[in-house]
Amino acid sequence: MDDEELADLHRFLAEYHRRLAKEAVLDVVQQYHADLAQRLADEAALIPRRTAIAQRLREGEQQKRNEME
Superkingdom, according to UniProt (predicted)? Predict the structure, then answer.
C-alpha cells in the first residue's frame, strides 16, 4: 500500500465515522465518532507531508555517507 492509498483509506474511515456520528442517538456516541473522524482526517492530511520529510531525511543521510567515502 502506497502513501496515497493509505491517505485515501484514512479519508474513507473519517467519512464513515462522520456518518455514524450523524446517525447516533446518544451524545457520547456522536462525540466519539466525530472525534475519531477528525483524527483520521487529520492523519490523512499529514501522511504525504510525513513521507516527504522522511524522504528528505533519507537523502540527507545518503549524502553524508557519500561525503564520508
Answer: Bacteria
